[in-house]
Amino acid sequence: MSALLEVSGVSKSFDGFKAIDNLSFSIGEVELRAVIGPNGAGKTTFMDLVTGKTRPDSGTIRYGSLSRSLTGMSEARIAQAGIGRKFQKPTVFEDQTVVENLVMALKSPRNPFSVLIRRPPQRDRAATLAEQIGLDDALDRRAGELSHGQKQWLEIGMLLAQEPRVLLVDEPAAGMTTAEREKTTQMLVDAARTRAVVVIEHDMDFVRRLNCRVTVLHEGCVLAEGPLDHVCADPRVIDVYLGRDDDA
Ligand SMILES: Nc1ncnc2c1ncn2[C@@H]1O[C@H](COP(=O)(O)OP(=O)(O)OP(=O)(O)O)[C@@H](O)[C@H]1O
To answer: Which segments constitute the ABC transporter domain (predicted)?
Structure first.
């Protein structure tokens, strides 16, 4: 499997504290990966480094066919290059409808007025995305009226509209009902059929349903990696993560 994203020997300290410590991590072109680990393990900082929000002190992050490292690029340029990120809190345009949100997010052309003049290809593409995220019966509803779970799906749809090659998703299941979690699992599994999807999650039932390779981070580096049952049986993982009631 060829790597789409390759993090090599990356370190990042905050005020002398090593949040990421010589981290090496790679993900394939088409892959679903869960990243788990105790609080403070460096999961969010890892995503901040990949998206350019935070600059590494050392190491390289290579992506796709780009010959240069992502580490010198701006956040906007990294996003344009095909790395999308979903934060924990949904950020949708509450006053716009579902279809308007999706049309605005479409890769090109980025023109909100196309919704008003109902340019068919864009509306059609938005409707297809709405179907993918289970909101096809809510196309003309204001995003502000949606439930928390539906807003999360809308944001996933808006990210998919950008046609990312890598999608980074931070704790998608937080605050969702069981039914919403199951739907979200399916959405991420489907999204990973054509791209790389990396999911940070604490909910182990959710991770189990993703049925994918798991990377366990601890103190800023990879503690274990492999199928969920394999990493869950690792005494080091039990010791630092699963065995601790406050983290599991
Ligand atoms: N901007 C920052 N300034 C100072 N310290 C930071 C900063 N960002 C992260 N850290 C520290 O780096 C460490 C790793 O934090 P990070 O948020 O990446 O962990 P995490 O694995 O995502 O944790 P959680 O599961 O609680 O979200 C923590 O000790 C955190 O306090």
So the answer is: 5-244
